[in-house]
Amino acid sequence: MRLFTRMSDAISIAHTSAESSPACRNAERAASLANVTRLLAAQLGARPISVYEAGGGSTSYIPLGGLSVSHITLVDIDPRQVDRNDIANETIVGDLQTIELPAESFDLVICYNVIEHLPRLPQALQRLARVVKPGGLIVIGAPVPLSLNGLAARFTPHRVHVWICKHLLKWPDAGKPGCAPFPVAYHRLVHPGRLQAHMKMFGLQPVYFCAYLGSLIEEIARKNPLLGRLLISAANVASRAAFGRLDLLRGDFHLVLRKL
Question: What percent of the chain has pLDDT over 90?
């Protein structure tokens, strides 16, 4: 399997074999995140910027240390997540699908592990596009629907997600109020191809895309190596049967869009 990347300044990522060990595959996410970080620094420079963490919860997944961040605004629907946030200058309990923030008010919008939870995703995407400044960037991190991560989440009840996180992944607080896993909706626009096409309607041009090893497979393989090897082997068999057109292992993606 190969990783597909597309960037305005042609930063590349090393291809990683689907047969390699789970520990090695962890490098896919790290490499992609490093590419995103370099892209943000190159595009936004050293000037002071305003950041919008859309559904950011208790922390940020995107390293901001290399940027000159003047203000961070966080919006999340869960007040418990908002109370635990330790990076935002301004926190708002609100729904990304309905909240109205000032137009063209942010240089950088981050929406990470959020869009799969929104049943009215088009409304949320329209609002994200509206608040980013011309020349600004939107960073989206989300699961790939046609992957083991995505298929398991889409076609099993939420109580199964809680059981997996509690018993297989050993998350002691799984399912408790304000703690992951959260219910998913998986609107059709979560699909990365459809998402990119949809955002072009708002003048947002994709400048980077990379799918990498899904977090569910990675964590299962780390905490239950035997089960991890079985899942990886099954995914590789499915990929070969589909002549490489289906990659069930790369279950998450990074997408960066620039507003024209």
Answer: 55
Per-residue model confidence (pLDDT) at position 144: 96
What's this model's pTM, rounded to 2 decimal places? 0.86
Locate 92 and state its tokens: 């708002």
| pLDDT above 70 (res 15) | no
Measured at the CA of 200, the angle between CA 106 and CA 36, to 5 degrees, comes to 55
For the chain, domain boundaries: 22-259
Chain CA centroid to CA 131, Å: 19
Instruction: Confirm if 248 and 235 have CB atoms less than 8 A apart.
Output: yes
The Cα-based distances of 129 to 48, 137, 138 in angstroms read 20, 10, 8
**Cα four-point dihedral sign 176, 178, 181, 182:** positive
Give the pLDDT confidence score for residue 252 in this predicted structure. Answer: 94
Strands 252-259, 204-212: pairing is: antiparallel
pLDDT band of residue 24 (cuts 50, 70, 90) is very low
Nearest to 257 by CA among 3, 43, 81: 43
Please give the Cα distance from 108 to 100 (Å, whole number): 17
Q: Are strands 49-54 and 69-76 parallel, antiparallel or unpaired?
A: parallel
Give the fold, CATH level 3, of 22-259: Rossmann fold (3.40.50)
Q: Please check whether residue 199 is in contact with residue 206, taking contact to mean a CB–CB distance below 8 angstroms.
A: yes
State phi, psi for 204 to the nearest 5 degrees.
-110, 120
Q: Which token pair is 65?
A: 């240390």
